[in-house]
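Field: sequence (string)
Field: structure_tokens (string)

Example rows 1 and 2, in order.
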Amino acid sequence: MKPLEGFFLLRKLKVDLAILEDVFKKRVAGYSYKWLIETYQLPIVETTLHRYYERYRLHGLEGLQTRKSNQRYSKDFKEKVVQEYVNGHGSLQSLTIAYNIPSRQTLKNWVMRYTLGKEMKDYLPKPEVYTMNARKTTLEERIKITEECIREGLTYKEMAEKYQVKYYQVYQWVKKYKEHGPDALIDGRGKGKAPSVQTDAEKLEAEIKALKARNQWLEMENNVLKKTKEIGRGDDEKRLHQEASYQTIEALKEAYPIAWLCEALGISRASYYKWIQRQTPDDEADDRALMDEITTIYHDHKGIYGYRRITIYLRQRKGMTINHKRVRRLMKHLGLRAVIRQKRKSYRPSTPEVTAENLLNRNFTAERENEKWLTDVTELKFPSGQKAYLSAILDLGKGTIVSHVLGHSNNNKLVFDTYHQAIERTQATHVLLHSDRGYQYTSPSFQRLLKQRQFVQSMSRVGRCIDNGPMEAFWGTLKSEMFHLKKYHTFEELEHDIHAYIKFYNEDRITLKMA
């Protein structure tokens, strides 16, 4: 059997009949309508495709071909179909499919005539050229019809009947051809006059108008890209992706035509208007409220919380029962990510004066406060190139910073002041104090301070920064959650923020251990 050639009209979009036949073969093989629509990107819903499939099953592809002229039905045929409908033997849809009638409206009109007592009529053999709908033609057809009409001296009615076009179409073509030649038959609907029949002033005005429209379109595209990025249209989830498109149109519709915005975003106007009139589902409303809550928490803590810690915050501080996967999905849609730490720079080891064994030996647990302390110094660089140095002591038992001092130089005074501050606050004795092999910690002066409080000293091995892991982790956390979030230009500004952050770290910060 010779395969059919042509197109089938789906919502004013041409679909190749060969593709449609392949779709229906897949349906016969058991594929779902939803899968077929998504795979072949058909511009219809599942119920519509089901209706077309039923027509195909009963009549083959011939039943789906677009007819070039109106279908002709006899009086007996019309009465037969109407009687079946009146007697309850089928619905409008099932009968139009069963009898291969292109439209339910056709059958509905027959039923209306029957119920009003009007007589069914046989279809006229030839459409009236004066009242028929205008047929779409190509430029070549229009030139051929017009030149033949003029050359042969035929009437407009004769030409209209011969080529099945409307009488008024032939009249207009001949008139334009005689005045301006073949170029006048170019389809200029919505475009103004053809260039060949325009004056110089009209051409200049048309060019300016086209440039303005082009500039407005490019401006709109740029704003659409910015707005969709702001709203989050890049999300992989289809529902959120579509939602962002609709919100973009809603935000820009006062500045640009809705048709332009829909075209730029690749969605139909019908779907946008349907979205406007819809009722917001409960789960979508819940997601919106939760996204507002997540955004507030994220910005209140300067972006240092990822989805895990925000989940814990919502559970413990807000009393919510919520899964971390939902928080991660919504944060991804909002474009919110926790601050990523930067890699530490490597430093050359120095030769210490006095060293101690690694008594801590990476045992970072403590049963009580002031049992094990870790200490270290980190460098903080200003944009101008100047540096500040932060010294701190971390209590492993409580997991908090016992003392901290910010200075202009990395010297003994900085470390000694940090130690004295810790002693003043805790009055601790017999503490295991672990540090790296920095010269301040190996100096004889520092050794004497430790002996006064019966402290036991422990030091990391050479090149083993993980021996002081929790202290290094704190530096990374402080820098990613505070220092790298803004540029500091003064020592006082940095000192103020460090004091505020360490207070937050000790008292309010959510940690994954809380889960």
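Row 2 begins here:
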Amino acid sequence: MNVVNPDTLLEELPGNVFADIERCLNENNSWQKLAEACINGYGDNMFRGCDIKDMQRSVSPARMLLNKFMQMNLQVNEFQALCMLKDNSLVHIHNKLVTNVPMQIYSPEEDMKLVYKLNETIELVVEVDGSPLPTCQWYHNNQVVPGQTSSTLTIDKFGVHHEGVYHCLLRQSLKGEVSEMASGKFCLSVKPTPPKIVKDLPEEITVIHHEDLELTFEVEAYPKPEDYVWYKGNARYLSTIEPKLRISHVDSLVAGQYHCEVQNDEGSCSTRKASVTVLGSALSTSRPQILRKPIANASYNVNDWVHLSCRVQCCQPVTFTCFLNNELITSDGKEIIIQSSSDKDEYECKLSYEITEDNMERLDWKLKFHFEAASSVDRVLTPDVDVKVKPEYGKKTYTARNKWALLVGNSDYSAAKKLTAPFNDMMALADELKKLRFRVLALTSLKEDQFRNALRNFSQLVQKDDYVVFYFAGHGFSVQKFDYMVPVDAELISEQAAVNLGRNEYKKMQPSHCIDVDTVTSHLQSANPALILYIYDMCRHIQSNVSSSKLPDSSLLVDAKANSYFIYATSLNYDAFEVEDGMSCLMKQLKSIIGTKVSVGQLGQRFKELFRRTKEVQERQIPRTEGDLAEPRSLTDDACPTAEDKAGVLQQWQRLSSVGGGTEEECDVPSCTDQRMCAGML
């Protein structure tokens, strides 16, 4: 690479640099791509068609092209701009000259919401400048899009799986320093489309008696239809969740005409009628008669077995089929055992099903069984049997030694936007945790030194086998995948750097004056508690142009201990929002379920499911959960302090809580509106 001034004229370039550019332009006819771009009206420098013909006849077409540029007094930066006009195919020539110009994004200037039709081909373009030219990497919902490293992202046959948020992360190495910058977001969605049949049902279909019948078709629609309603003749027959109807062991009663109606919010359509003929049936007046229906116990626990049986009478041989939640199940000899027997004209099926925690999690704690008894000419279904399982964690009961919570709500910022929700959210969470017998320390508007003191002193209360909740609400940001919490007295960076970083105030904070989340983890993990739940209600926009010297000390990182779970209000490079009632979107949903008797992992999943219904911030705030918690511990588990605790840490807590006017028995939250009192406690 050759470092030159961007205002330098081409004719002033050193001879070896000029010769290098000439050689590259002559390779693969790159000179012609550049000349044709000028002829087609790009930029202020245009040639005539005859000029290109003259160049083609020259020994060095690139030299003639460069001579014409020099006659126009073209500068280096203008030449580099021309090299970017032809589908980025001349980037290698652009990079022959380095002008040390910081990267800059010209488009998109702000986040864009774009709607496209199904199967449409689309292009997302980021217009960027800088020398050396920044490298590009596209992301879809914060996940790397493999192989997409150009400033243009092409999506062929746009579909529902392409929906979401895209952005391009740019990286430039300038004078030995690497900086990153994220483009605006492209929020893509599919244009609502009424259903349209693209592959219809067959007009006629013939099936052999006692074989299986399957009717399928293909439909294009958005949003996807919730169900497909099948009709036999003019009578409603069945609803399915996909455009497929399957009937097992057909008999003569299956014969007839079938069609399916499809509907979404945009419209409806219907398939043609398919005429089904059943061959080889032998009609009989007999059909299986149910003698004993399956009956379940009143309730079950995890690791119990469910034993169900069904007995029928029929003059024809009978085969049984078992269903769980309307899905066919078969015997595996381990967790599912199915046995059939007969005695003259009576037939019996016995089903044994083991209730495991994994199965219950997969089935969302819902078990509904039924049997099908089929003879050669007919079949019957038993009524559904609902099995109630107590939501317990197997036979094992988990307890905490002590239950602690440190809540920080930063609202009154001196150098950033003041916030309303953090204090309200902190107090709402404190109320819910007190109901679960947590001892809660809630602090508001902490300065940096108060924040660090709070962490250090609070962690001294935590012991092995304790449960801990840490909560922070306030401004936040990310640097190279490290998350930072902003104290109320955090300082701004330099004015010029702030201009380069963009529109968000919290992007202008000095990381060295903020608290990174690994500092919290280091303090709280030191005693190896049984459970730590971290809740971070803050923005996580990426802040670039930060030197590695300001990143967290690697000595703070701790080994994973299979005891942690994280709930982030939003994903990396996304905002977190407040709602009109003075509460954050995270707390609005979390406070309604935090007292539910489920594992912390299930709590995080339910929170994300509830959050999807928050229409005010759809696509703008996407929460994230993660963790290595190995045991199904719950915030509702009981606490069992030791005798040593009652004379030790619990007395320390009683002295601390009395400063705020509470008692140890009440587990009250100290009042934290007085900063002097906060400093005294810490």
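free_text_note (row 2): Residues 41-45, 281-285, 501-506, 660-682 have pLDDT under 50 and may be disordered.
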